[in-house]
Amino acid sequence: MTAIEFRPFPGLRNPHLQTILAHYLRLPGEPAFELETVDLDDDDRCAMLVTTPAGWRPGGTTVLLVHGLTGSDQSAYLIRAAAKLARRGVRAVRFNMRGQGRGAGLARKPYHAGCSHDVRAAAAALRADDPGGRLVAIGYSLGGNAVLKLAGELAADGRSLLDQVIAVCPAAELNRCVERIMQPKNRRYERRFVALLRSEGLARQALYPEPERPIPEADVRLFEFDDRYTARIWGYAGAASAGGAPFCS
């Protein structure tokens, strides 16, 4: 393997600037897609957007793209990746974790970084659709943790489902990730994550009321949100027992 040194564009060495620009950069436009749903083993469902380029045939390559925390099929990096893959003749699938993007309202539970079983369900559906094709999973941040977890669970049997797994900036050490996000210099990101997680939770509870699990107030820290809400829904005693917030693996 050959490591390639990352060299930012001139004037873009500041990591915060890179993060903000990458969020708003949406060129090219969203590629055409077909909306499909994936049934999960607890009766929840997820949605995925399948972009099939002209000329693609069964037996070709399909890439399953998994977003990060508070992301969705509308995340700029997923749209850019799907468009680039389609231009190269690769079928690109933007997978929405539970309740995200065009899958809003399909799930009673929220997603978390340990939801490798949901990614596995999506991969199994794609494999069944094209048994002889090449299937690659690419996860970003929280999604990177999920695809790596899936690869570990599959172990030697992994090739029967996935030909390759790629993790981009995976949140592999969850405790250290939340500690870093909660540092004062990153407070702007923490506030945004909490605001989006609360919004997702409120929308979900409007459809599936759960009065015994109230949404934490807006000024909570990220660890506290998972400790009081996400972890409890999944049956954990708290975020720490789940392996660490903000992702409750």
Explain the overall architecture.
Helices cover 36% and strands 14% of the residues. It is α/β, with parallel strands linked by helices. The chain has 2 domains: 25-172, 3-Layer(aba) Sandwich (Rossmann fold), CATH 3.40.50.1820; 175-233. The protein has a 6-stranded mixed sheet, with helices on both faces. The two termini are 29 Å apart.
Distance between the termini: 29 Å
Tally of individual domains: 2
The fraction of residues in strands falls at: 5-15%
Largest sheet: 6 strands, mixed
Helical segment tally?
7
- Physical arrangement of strands within the biggest beta sheet: 1-2-4-3-5-6
What are its keywords?
249 residues, alpha/beta, Rossmann fold, 7 helices, 6 strands
Write the layout of secondary structure elements.
Blueprint: H1 15-24, E1 34-39, E2 45-51, E3 61-66, H2 76-87, E4 91-95, H3 116-129, E5 134-140, H4 142-154, E6 164-168, H5 174-181, H6 187-207, H7 222-233
Parallel strand pairs: 3-4, 3-5, 5-6
Antiparallel strand pairs: 1-2, 2-4
Helix pairs in contact: 3-4
Q: What's the gist of this structure?
A:
The protein has 249 residues and is of the alpha/beta class. Helix content is 36%, strand content 14%.
